[in-house]
Amino acid sequence: MRSLQFAVLSMLVTAGTALAHAPAKPLPAAQAAIARAVLEVREQIRTLVAAKDAKGLVQVYTDDFSHTHGSGKIDSRDNRIVALLSGDPAIELAPVDELLVRVPGPGIVIVSGRSPVKSLADGRTHDFRWTQVFVKSNDRWQMAVSQATTLPPPEP
Questions:
Q1: Whether the predicted pLDDT of 97 surpasses 80
Q2: Which residues of 11-30 are buried (b: 16+ CB within 10 A; e: fewer)?
Q3: Beta bridge partners of 67
Q4: Cβ-proximal residues to 138 (8 Å cutoff; 6+ apart), any chain
Q5: Rounded distance, CA 92 to CA 69, Å?
Q6: What is the DSSP string of 36-85?
Q7: Picking from 43-47, 95-99, 104-108, 117-121, which range would have the lowest pLDDT averaged per residue?
Q8: Which residues are CB-neighbours of 29 under 8 A, at least 6 positions away?
């Protein structure tokens, strides 16, 4: 199922459209290839978490990575990896309802989306808008920063 989602998301990015915010024009071929490479890193994170591969996860996050939770709490790379491996809910592992990939330059990609995430605190699912920034370092893409914002529940 996740492979199918990944393939569909990749096609949407390649075609230059996203579910929520369609860019004004399709991504040029070079940018689409970069976007696909970054989406593969997002899928790699899922695979590494499923395999409980901490060493592999260290490679996909920059040394100075930080994640800002919807609550305002900030995780370092190592804290984030511990949280992922312990089964904490995370935007890296959540289904993606909306996705937008921007390639502002050859060494940077900004991925944003909306995902439902189940809370451990109350057992309810909350929607989050999130942003992740990837940078190319030593010929590989790594996540440098991510941030999630909790969305208010839909009005009745």
A1: yes
A2: ebbbebbbeeeeeeeebeee
A3: 75, 146
A4: none
A5: 12
A6: HHHHHHHHHHHHHHHTT-HHHHHHHEEEEEEEE-TTS-EEEHHHHHHHHH
A7: 117-121
A8: none
Asked if residue 8 has pLDDT above 50, the reply is no
Taking the C-alpha atoms of 74, 76, 79 and 83 in order, what is their torsion angle to the nearest 10 degrees? 60
Taking a C-beta distance cutoff of 8 angstroms, is the pair 45, 92 a contact?
yes
Residue whose pair of structure tokens reads 């390649």 in the numeric block: 14
Please name each of the domains of the chain with its CATH number: 2-150 (3.10.450.50)
pLDDT digits (tens, 9 = 90+) for 26-75: 677 888 899 999 999 999 999 999 999 999 999 999 999 999 998 899 99
What confidence tens digit (pLDDT) does each residue in 111-153 have? 999 999 988 878 889 999 999 999 998 899 999 999 999 998 8
Dihedral sign, Cα of residue 8, residue 25, residue 34, residue 74: negative
Structure token pair of residue 88: 């904490």
